[in-house]
Design goal:
10 helices, Helix Hairpins, alpha+beta, Heat Shock Protein 90, five-stranded mixed β-sheet, about 60% helix, single chain, binds adenosine-5'-diphosphate
C-alpha cells in the first residue's frame, strides 16, 4: 500500500540521515587516511584506498540495515494501521489491525486506537440502522392503524350516499358505526401524541408527593360504566379516606393506573373481576392490578410493552385497543425508575405490578 507522506518531511529525514552517514564516512576516511600511514607505512595512498573501500562497504551495510529496521518498525505496521483506518472510514467496520503483529509500543497504541474507533463506529452504525428500522416500522404501523378506521368511515359514508340514507334504520346504524370509528381515531391520535411526546423528551414530568389513594379512587370511578358494560366487578383494598403518599408525576401515574385497569377490563370475561391492591413497604409502595381474564401466553409476556404489539389483534381492535397503552405505561414507569412486571396464566388471569417510591 502506498502511503501519502506529509510534504517532504519523511523524505527529508531519510535524506538527511543518509547525508550525515556519507559525511561522517568521508571525514573519518580522510582523517584516518592521513593519520594511519604516518604510523604504519609510507604507502599512505594504499591505506587511503583501502579505508575508503571499507568505509563505503560499512555505509552500504548500514543503509540496508536501516531500511530494514525502518520497514519492520515503522513503514509496515503504520501502513497496516492506515489501511484499516481507511477501510473503517469507508464503512468496513469489521476491519481490525492485528495487535499481536505490532513491533513497537507506539505502533501498538496507534493500532489499538484505530481498533477502538472501529468498534465504536460499528456500534454506532448498528444503532443507527436499528433506529431507522424502528422508525420505518413505526410509520408502517401508524399508517396501518389509521387506515382501518378511516376506510370504515369512508365505507359507511359511501353506502349512505349510495341510498342507504333513505332507510332510517340502516342509516342510523351506519352513522353510529362511523361515529364509533371517529372515536377510535381520536383515541389512537391521542395515544400517538402521548407516545411521540414521551419519546422525543417533550413530555416534562412534574415530581411531587401525592396521595395514591385519590388516584386509585378517581380512576376506578371513571371506569365504573365501562366495567358494568363488560360485567366485570372492580375491587380494591384502598379505603375511602385512606392516605398513601408516593413520589412521582400524579397525572402520568394516573394514566398508568388507567391504562392497566382498562386492559384488565377489556381482556376479562363476563362476570370476572379486577382487583387493584396497594401494599405499603418502608420505602416503597407496590401497586398490583389483577384480573380474571384471558391471560397472556408466556412467549408474549415480554413483548406486550412494545408499541403496537398485541397478543390477539382482532380482540384488541374489537375492544377499542390501539396497541399503545402498555408502551405508554412502560415509558412513564421507566421515567420514574419504577420497577414493573407482569405475571399471567392463560385462561386464569393476569397481574401487572409496579413499585413507586414513598
Ligand atoms: P391494546 O390497546 O391493544 O390493549 P396495550 O398496549 O394496552 O394495547 O396492550 C398490548 C397487548 O397486551 C394487548 O393487545 C393484549 O393482547 C395484551 N394485554 C394487555 N393487558 C392484558 C390483560 N390484562 N390480559 C390479557 N392480555 C392483555
Amino acid at each position: 500500500m502506498k502511503i501519502p507522506l506529509p510534504p517532504g518531511s519523511d523524505r527529508f529525514t531519510r535524506r538527511f540521515f543518509m547525508l550525515c552517514l556519507w559525511a561522517i564516512a568521508l571525514v573519518s576516511s580522510v582523517i584516518t587516511a592521513m593519520v594511519l600511514p604516518s604510523l604504519l607505512s609510507p604507502n599512505w595512498w594504499m591505506w587511503l584506498l583501502l579505508l575508503i573501500v571499507v568505509m563505503y562497504a560499512v555505509i552500504t551495510l548500514a543503509t540496508i540495515a536501516w531500511k530494514r529496521i525502518l520497514s519492520t518498525y515503522i513503514t509496515k505496521p503504520f501502513a497496516q494501521i492506515a489501511e484499516s483506518a481507511q477501510l473503517v472510514s469507508g464503512g468496513v467496520t469489521s476491519a481490525r489491525v492485528p495487535l499481536a503483529t505490532m513491533p513497537s509500543s507506539e505502533a501498538y497504541l496507534a493500532a489499538e486506537a484505530v481498533n477502538t474507533l472501529a468498534d465504536k463506529a460499528g456500534k454506532d452504525i448498528a444503532e443507527m440502522k436499528k433506529l431507522e428500522r424502528v422508525r420505518t416500522e413505526f410509520l408502517g404501523n401508524v399508517s396501518h392503524e389509521l387506515r382501518t378506521p378511516i376506510f370504515s368511515i369512508q365505507g359507511y359514508l359511501e353506502t349512505l350516499l349510495d341510498g342507504a340514507i333513505d332507510d332510517p334504520e340502516v342509516s342510523h346504524k351506519f352513522v353510529e358505526r362511523a361515529h364509533q370509528n371517529t372515536k377510535r381515531l381520536n383515541i389512537l391520535l391521542s395515544d400517538l401524541i402521548d407516545i411521540s411526546k414521551i419519546e422525543s423528551g417533550e413530555m416534562r414530568l412534574s415530581f411531587r408527593y401525592f396521595n395514591l389513594c385519590d388516584v386509585v379512587r378517581e380512576t376506578l370511578s371513571s371506569l365504573e360504566i365501562q366495567a358494568q358494560q363488560a360485567e366485570v366487578a372492580l375491587i380494591t383494598n384502598v379505603i375511602n379516606n385512606g392516605e398513601i403518599m408516593v413520589y412521582g408525576d400524579k397525572e402520568r401515574l394516573a394514566q398508568v393506573v388507567l391504562n392497566i385497569l382498562q386492559n384488565a377490563i377489556k381482556y376479562n370475561r363476563t362476570n370476572g373481576s379486577v382487583t387493584i391492591s396497594v401494599e405499603i413497604q418502608p420505602q416503597e409502595v407496590t401497586v398490583r392490578i389483577r384480573d380474571t381474564g384471558i391471560g397472556i401466553p408466556p412467549s408474549d409476556k415480554t413483548r406486550i410493552f412494545e408499541r403496537f404489539y398485541r397478543v390477539d389483534k382482532d380482540r384488541s381492535r374489537s375492544v377499542g385497543g390501539t396497541g399503545l397503552g402498555l408502551a405508554i405505561v412502560k415509558h412513564i414507569l421507566e421515567a420514574h425508575q419504577a420497577p414493573f412486571g407482569v405475571e399471567s396464566e392463560v385462561g386464569v388471569g393476569t397481574e401487572i405490578w409496579f413499585i413507586l417510591k414513598r
